[in-house]
Structure formats: structure tokens, C-alpha cells
Amino acid sequence: MDTLSNEAQNLSTARQYLGALERMEEAGVIARFFHTDLVQEEFPNRLVPNGARRDLNAVLEGVESGRRIMKSQRYEVLNALAAGEQVILEVDWSGELSTSLVEQFPAGFQFHARFAVFLEFQDGKIIAQRNYDCYDPW
């Protein structure tokens, strides 16, 4: 596959991945986007002050956790760039809780964030994901 079509395919896969997250698909459906050696890094932010590093199993557990606590979520891609085996997305995200997490976050609470995500592909699947999340004040 030439570089241009490979980049276009990776960008399409990245958009499909966000679409599946937005539809709150089951972990088994989301897993199809990931390489078995996936490493996801979430850099420090308001919800995860120390950041996190997750393998495939931890990411899929997070998908299921999100399905339990979120009523809905929306991902709007503001900018996208594909270069070689990497896709970079600037995303506007919002989500509404279906259940109370703590007093500060009751059911119906709406989060909003802008974030950048760097996705690295291998064999057409995401092998690395780095998130830089910037949440609005609450």
C-alpha cells in the first residue's frame, strides 16, 4: 500500500474509532481498532492528575466502565493530520453522566474538554495512543 492511501486509511480508522466510542459500543467492538500490544498514555489532567499508562485490557475495561457511567458523549474532530503511521486529532468532547460518581459529579453532570490524541498504527491497527486532555472548569 502506498503512503498516501495508508495515511488515508489510518485517518479513516481513527474517525471510525471515535465514532464507535461516541456510540458507546461494547469493548469487543472497540477492540477491533487496537493492536494486541496497545499502550495508551493519558497525560496528567483534572480527572487523572497523575496521568495513566494502560495496556489493551485496561483500555477495554475503561470502555466498559465508561458505558456504565456515561449517558452520552460526543466527539467532534476539529483538525486531523495523518503522517506515515501516525494520526493526530484535535477533538472537542462532551459527555453526560448517567449516574452520580461523587457529590461533585451528580447524574446529569456534563463534562466538556478539548483534547489532542496521537495515534500510532501498525498493520492498520492502533498500537499507541497518547491523550492530552484539557477539561473545562467545573
Describe this structure in words.
- There is one protein chain.
- This protein is α+β, with helices and mostly antiparallel strands.
- The chain is built from three helices and six strands; from the N terminus they run ααββαββββ.
- Strands 2-1-6-5-4-3 form a six-stranded mixed beta sheet.
- A hairpin with a 2-residue loop joins strand 5 (110-122) and strand 6.
- The longest helix has 20 residues, at 3-22.
- The radius of gyration is 15 Å and the shape is globular.
- It starts with a helix and ends with a strand.
- The mean pLDDT is 96.
Write the SSE topology.
Elements: H1 3-22, H2 27-30, E1 34-42, E2 52-55, H3 56-69, E3 70-83, E4 86-97, E5 110-122, E6 125-135
Parallel strand pairs: 1-6
Antiparallel strand pairs: 1-2, 3-4, 4-5, 5-6
What order do the strands of the largest sheet run in, or round the barrel if closed?
A: 2-1-6-5-4-3
Q: Could you give a short account of the major beta sheet?
A: 6 strands, mixed
Tell the overall outline: globular
Instruction: Estimate the mean pLDDT confidence.
Output: 96
- Quick one: how many beta strands? 6
**SSE pattern:** HHEEHEEEE
Q: What is the terminal-to-terminal distance?
A: 46 Å
Q: Briefly note the structural class of the backbone.
A: alpha+beta
Strand residues, percent: over 45%
Radius of gyration: 15 Å
Helix content percent band:
25-40%
Please work out how many helical segments DSSP would assign.
3
> pLDDT under 50 segments (min length 5)?
none
Provide a brief overview of the structure.
With 138 residues, the chain is of the alpha+beta class.
